[in-house]
Structures are given as C-alpha cells and as structure tokens.
Amino acid sequence: xxxxxxxxxxxxxxxxxxxxxxxxxxxxxxxxxxxxxxxxxxxxxxxxxxxxxxxxxxxxxxxxxxxxxxxxxxxxxxxxxxxxxxxxxxxxxxxxxxxxxxxxxxxxxxxxxxxxxxxxxxxxxxxxxxxxxxxxxxxxxxxx
Length: 144
Prior knowledge:
- Helices cover 35% and strands 26% of the residues.
- It is α+β, with helices and mostly antiparallel strands and 144 residues long.
- A six-stranded antiparallel β-sheet has the order 1-5-6-4-3-2, with helices on one face.
- The radius of gyration is 15 Å and the shape is globular.
C-alpha cells in the first residue's frame, strides 16, 4: 500500500458507479461526481455553485479514470464518499502495477505528468493492491 492519506469524517452515503471500459467511462465518472457533489454539498455562501468550482474535481476524475483505462483492462468502478468538507474518490482497476511505474515509462513519451498534477490538487491519497487489481483513493477538499 502506498499512502499519504488524510482522515475524513464520513457522514453522507457512499455511491459506487460501475464504469464501463471505453469512451463513456470518463464522461460517466465526471457526471457522477458532479451529480454527487450537487446532491450532498451546498456552497458555503448558500448561493449557486460556479462552473469553475468543479474544474479541479473534473481534472482529477479525468486523470484517474483515464489512467485506469490506459494502464489496466479499464476502470472497474468508482466509489464516492463525502464528509468533513472532503470528497473521497476511489477508482478501481484490474492492474497490480503501481501508477508510479506507468509514470516513469510515460516520461520518455509525451505523457506521465497527470499523476503529479492530481497529487498537487488533493489533500491525501493511497494505492491499495487487492486480489483483483488496485484501488486508488484520493481525498479532495470540496469547493466552497
């Protein structure tokens, strides 16, 4: 297990989204996160949320699901949990390879920088190997 995880105070229901391999997985994941945050988190000022409030979340989801699609047989599922002003996003795939392995390989090509970008936006993260692959978890401070 690779970890740099913040603790969360979970108070809302968790949601698990089955992600199909293919072009629709990223779109479905982003729509699910948008809907989940809209349902369970209100802006601090009580007003409407701005589109740019979601920009970091959408980038994080794009990177995690795309990486699962590229480095494994595709993403299997995504789980969302919210509490303590944070959103926990978990993406599961069928590969046991570390995201760091892929990052080093991609540095020789045009890619390999997405994980670093994601890690700069999150409050904590972990990678857990399971019997069927791995689970990547990030803890994201929610937009105000």
